[in-house]
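Q: How would the structure tokens look for this protein?
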Amino acid sequence: MPEVATEIPTQDKEKESMPTMGFLDHLEELRKRVIYCILFVAVGFFVCWGYADRIYGVMQRPIMMALRNHHLPETLVYLNPTEPFNLYLKVAALAGLFLTCPFVLYQVWLFVAPGLYRNEKRYVAPFLFSTVALFVLGGYFGYRIVYPAALDFLINYGSRFQPMITIAEYTQLFLTIILGMGLIFEMPILIFFLSLMGIVSAGFMWKNFRYSILVIFVIAAIVTPTTDILNMCIFAAPMILLYLVSIGVAWLVHPQQRAARREKKA
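A: Here is the predicted structure in token form.
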């Protein structure tokens, strides 16, 4: 009697190809990935240490331009002899993190990958490219648009006083805005993983769009270093656009939508 070939459903194939790991295995994997990330960032730090002064020259351009526009001395000060050295340490560490972020993100992907189905692991290249691109785009948006506008407002608001801006305070404000904008631009990546796990859906996000706008403006009011409405809107506008993009991402990767598309093809 001839054997009847039975095709295993696509969903069952995905379940069969999905590996399982115990809690201790997860901890060991996490430890290994964290060690690799630290090593990559350390290498990036030593590479960038020799260029720390040039990198800081780029960092201080917005404040120099703002001081020049208000006819003020283009000089930053420090109050402690160790501040310049500590500043260059921070600059080299931050530049090293940016330089090695593709390698660090790849370690994040390797930690997450065991919990994904085989056909979902093909997202590694788009994940790395989009994560790095969005982070750099967010930092550049903060550097070119948000930070100059905030500095111009703040210096103009205190125009009747003589500013003495320290390098430590300026660097702290710079990192807060640039890194904050970089992280904000990662919203579609966060929604990608939440949707992939079925935690949020495009319908849920669209249904709660008006409440999301309120939350976005609250976050913008907290993150922006100024109190004016214009700078808050500058922060909020890209967040609203990214939220809309995230709705499309959620629709593409949510398990229910993927199952519906599979049934259509079948």
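Residues 23-185 form one domain.

The two ends are 29 Å apart (CA to CA).

Upvote if useful.
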